[in-house]
Design brief:
Blueprint: H1 4-17, H2 22-34, H3 38-48, H4 54-63, H5 72-79, H6 86-95, H7 99-112, H8 116-119, H9 135-143, H10 152-161
Helix pairs in contact: 1-2, 2-3, 4-5, 6-7
Length: about 160
C-alpha cells in the first residue's frame, strides 16, 4: 500500500524479535534507500549482504536511483566471481529501467524457481514499478499464476483523498 513509514516500523519490530531475520533486514534496507536515507541503507545492506564493500554499496545505490552511481551495477557485476540469483537480476534491471533485460531475467527466475518467496510479491513490489506500465508485466503475472497488479496509482489517489 506504499505506507513506507508503517512498513519500516513493522520491519524494525521484526528485526528486534529476530536480529538474524535477513528478509526483514533486506526490506528495511530497501525502505531506507527508497526514502533517500542512503547512510542507513548502506549500514543495513552491509549486514544483509555480509560485508557489502564500496562497489556493492554503489551498485545498490544505482539500482535505487541514487545520484552519482551511474555504471556502478555493471562494474560490480564484472568483479563478481559467482553471479547472483536470476531474480536479483530481474529486480536490478527493473530498478535500472532496463526493461528488456528485466523481463528476460524474470523469465529465467520463473524457470529456475529463483527466490520464490520474493516472486510471490512481484505484483506489489515497488522495485518493479518501472515495469508496471509495460503490458508484458501483467501478461507475465497472469502466466505465472499471480493476479494482475493492483492499480496502485488509483489506490494511492484514494488514500490521499480520504
Amino acid at each position: 500500500m506504499r505506507q513506507d513509514d508503517l512498513a519500516l516500523a513493522q520491519c524494525d519490530a521484526t528485526v528486534r524479535l529476530g536480529p538474524a531475520y535477513n528478509y526483514a533486514l533486506f526490506l528495511t534496507a530497501q525502505l531506507h534507500e527508497r526514502k533517500g536515507d542512503y547512510p542507513e541503507g548502506h549500514r543495513l545492506w552491509s549486514k544483509v549482504l555480509g560485508g557489502c564493500d564500496a562497489s556493492c554499496i554503489a551498485m545498490v545505490d544505482e539500482i535505487h536511483g541514487a545520484p552519482g552511481a551511474t555504471g556502478a551495477f555493471d562494474a560490480w557485476l564484472r568483479k563478481r566471481k559467482h553471479p547472483p540469483e536470476a531474480f536479483f537480476f530481474a529486480r536490478a534491471y527493473a530498478g535500472l529501467h532496463r526493461k528488456d533485460q528485466a523481463f528476460e531475467w524474470l523469465e529465467k527466475a520463473y524457470e529456475l524457481h529463483s527466490d520464490v518467496a520474493a516472486m510471490m510479491f512481484l505484483g506489489v513490489d515497488p522495485d518493479f514499478d518501472p515495469l508496471r506500465s509495460d503490458p508484458r508485466f501483467d501478461a507475465f503475472l497472469r502466466r505465472v499464476g499471480l493476479p494482475p497488479q493492483p492499480h496502485l496509482r488509483t489506490a494511492q489517489t484514494n488514500q490521499l483523498s480520504n
